[in-house]
Amino acid sequence: MSGVIVVLGRQGSGKGTQCALLQQRYDGVVHVSTGDMLRDAAASGTALGRRAEAIMAAGELVPDDVMCDVVAERMRPLLDSGVTVLLDGFPRTPAQAASLTKLTAPGGLLGAVLLEVDVQEVSERMLARGRHDDTAAGIARRLELYETQTAPLVAWFTERGMLKRIDGTGTLPEVFDRLTAAIGGLVPLRLSR
Ligand code: AMP
User: Fold this and answer.
1) Ligand 1 pocket: which of 8, 10, 19, 56 to mutate (most atoms <8 Å of CB)?
2) What CATH number is attached to the domain comprising 183?
3) Tens-of-pLDDT digits for all 193 residues of the chain?
4) In angstroms, how far is CA 155 from the centroid of its own chain?
5) Ligand 1 center to residue 179 CA distance, Å?
6) Order of all β-strands in the sheet with 163-167
7) How many domains does the chain contain in total?
8) Ligand 1 pocket check for 90: Cβ under 6 Å
């Protein structure tokens, strides 16, 4: 069965790391990270990349219409191919959530999982990881946008009975086990050989 599982959580909550591991460990699971897509575009100097670069460096959000087009283009072939998509970094605003609903067939949006890690801990994790946009000011701005723009999506998915909350603290394998259990409740998982 093909479908989309949205992975929500503050920046630095471990979404990217955990999703990459899930993709590696299970057949037919594809990790789509909009942050990775934009960073790749910036590295290859495409029109999208050039536009996104300064926005990302400042910790602001790329405009909804641009993001929705980019995601639709990436997702359509995946949705037709029958895989399970772990969507990391999208939707980030209510407008993006509405766009995702339109993009997925009825029943194709399988649910959302929220990796819960508090602000203090994600700030420390991001400063330690030291990515290009992980400056103190950039981190503060991204976390502020998370609270104003993205946190309302937690209510959006909860109202639809689609949200599973996961404790994102502890070791990487501990969080992986919790996440696998939650996702396994939404879609059958088969270990890769
Ligand atoms: P991330 O790796 O998900 O934290 O994304 C890094 C940066 O890419 C963000 O700070 C935004 O500037 C941009 N970005 C990623 N996904 C989105 C999105 N869905 N909407 C708008 N901007 C995004």
Assistant:
1) 56
2) 3.40.50.300
3) 579 999 999 999 999 999 999 999 999 999 999 999 999 999 999 999 999 999 999 999 999 999 999 999 999 999 999 999 999 999 999 999 999 999 998 889 999 999 999 999 999 999 999 888 999 999 999 999 999 999 999 999 999 999 999 999 999 999 999 999 999 999 999 999 8
4) 16
5) 22
6) 29-33, 84-88, 3-9, 109-116, 163-167
7) 1
8) yes
